[in-house]
Amino acid sequence: MAKSKGYPEALENKLRDRAVHSEDYNPEFTRKVEEISRSIPHMCFQCGTCTSSCPSAPRSSYRIRKFVRRALLGLEDEALTDPDLWLCTTCYSCTDRCPRDIAPTDVNMAMRNLAFERDIIPVNFLKTVQAIYKTGHGVPNNDVNKAARVKLGLTADPPTTHMYPEFIPGIQKILDHYKLKANADRIIKEAEGGK
Amino acid sequence: MNSYAFYLGCIAPNRYPGIEAAAIKTGKKLGIDLIPLKGASCCPAPGAFGSIDLDVFYAMAARNLVLAEQMKSDIALVCNGCYKSIWEVNHKLKHNDDLRDNVNEVLKEIDMEFKGTIEVYHLAELLYDPKIVGIEKIRESVTNPLTGTRIAVHYGCHLIKPKKERHFGSTDRPTWIEEMVEALGAEAVEYRNKMLCCGAGGGVRGYDIVHALDIANEKLINLQEVQVDALTDICPFCQLQFDRGQIEIQEKFGATYNLPVLHYSELLGLAQGMSPQDLALDLHGISCEPFLQKIL
After folding, report:
1. Predicted ipTM?
2. What is the pTM of this model?
């Protein structure tokens, strides 16, 4: 219940009616978003500069301003289950222009991190994890490219983990430390099994 | 000769090897020696990994940084996405003890330690920096000037933005890459909404390709208005989005542009007399032929 400010009763009621009440309200969510993003969504005064700078806004219902508001109000479920969360191209135009020095891009990224904790994530993100676990790279080499590389005087495989696969176990150890591969496999299996 | 550990990333070596070949060869002529960073992995992709778990993102990028620390060599790279991962994680770990301790705890499992002893540069900033190369030297190295061509620049996002955390000045109207294009003898052309993103980042290309291509398509429409011969970029992922993306845009939206898209290193290679074969330009999705006919 909102704290009384000692106004006449009618005014108190009016003010109370205007306050946001939501079952979804979770103050921990605001704190977690601020911690992960290292940014300050609670400073947002909803001017909309972020959304008006956003390349995704004109072609979808994605509104970064709305997500910053959700961060501020602790609307966890509403934010994390909204499929628009994944339409940020991370171009940082909003971050460059925010008059309150908030990094809305990083606020979005923090929410994506929190969504992943609840297994909410598009599978294409996890497929990148699987590829990197296997080869160290997100993009595989192929025969056409190998032939072209040799013609250019380069090694058929680039001198990365492609040419030195002995470095891959180290990468796998890092990913396994965070159980990322196991989680990726599990979530993909659930998503594709449910189709 | 300034020497750097050459961090390749994923898309340049595996899709546009001409960028790698050009960077090495043109660098040599300009006093930049690029030495392979053996065993490097994906940076990791800031869109994918940053979205999933920032802790993993830091640790994976730190492993690449430690490889260069072991070489006692600063890193040079050719991709904006890689710059975001490698430069930003280097910067954050150097300035945040808690983060560094967390990362080092994980790296200990593979006998590595992040010490914070090196710097990370994008090749484009090294080329522009008069203390390293500079416009004058670029101009002097040109043997096949790109005279008579009109070239537009796509800066991309993650090298220069967010501007408060970077050191490249204006992100509204930058002109330093245009200066580098003009040094090659070409005319650098301004166009509407130049700083618009390519649309591929943040995992969006994989999540919703039509949405991602629609952003690229907007840029291509703006580029068509000013009738350029080529678009140049400094990021292989942006290049993939505009080059292979044009084929996908044709399939999905029915719009045809046939606009050649070249990384600045490839452009520099051509201006220094490298042939299209030396740059494997035939691997590009959109033929560079109309552009090449103007300069060869």
Report:
1. 0.95
2. 0.94
